[in-house]
Amino acid sequence: MTKEEIIDKINSVLEEEFEVDKTLFLPDAPLMKTLDLDSLDLVDMVVLIEHNFGIVLNNSDFAGIKTFQDFYDFLYEKLN
């Protein structure tokens, strides 16, 4: 899966699940703030990613993720 395919897929999943317009998903935008995530929402996001990408994640995997670009890079590394 290319990085662009990963970005498109995750943006669509996040837009649908968290009801946030994906035009706000800019590479340098803060992930948690843009999606208005609390700790329970983060668990939901982990489950969504695991289900849609077939990978296993821990909440600790998100420790260094601040922006959408960090998130995209993380997923790309995990999938390749």
Would you kindly provide a written description of the structure presented here, covering whatever features stand out?
The mean pLDDT is 91. The longest helix is centred in the first third of the chain and has 16 residues, at 3-18. The protein is mainly alpha-helical. It is 60% helix and 0% strand. Helix 1 crosses helix 4. The protein is globular. The protein has a single domain (3-79), classed as ACP-like (Non-ribosomal Peptide Synthetase Peptidyl Carrier Protein, Chain A).
Topology:
Layout: H1 3-18, H2 31-35, H3 39-53, H4 68-79
Helix pairs in contact: 1-4
| CATH superfamily (homologous) name | ACP-like
Separation, N- and C-terminal Cα atoms: 8 Å
- Total strands: 0
What is the CATH topology classification name?
Non-ribosomal Peptide Synthetase Peptidyl Carrier Protein, Chain A
The major sheet is characterized as:
none
| Helical proportion, percent range | 55-70%
- Assigned CATH class: Mainly Alpha
Strand % is under 5%
Main attributes?
mainly alpha, Non-ribosomal Peptide Synthetase Peptidyl Carrier Protein, Chain A
Task: Describe, in short, the structure shown.
With 80 residues, the chain is an all-alpha fold. It has helices spanning 3-18, 31-35, 39-53, 68-79.
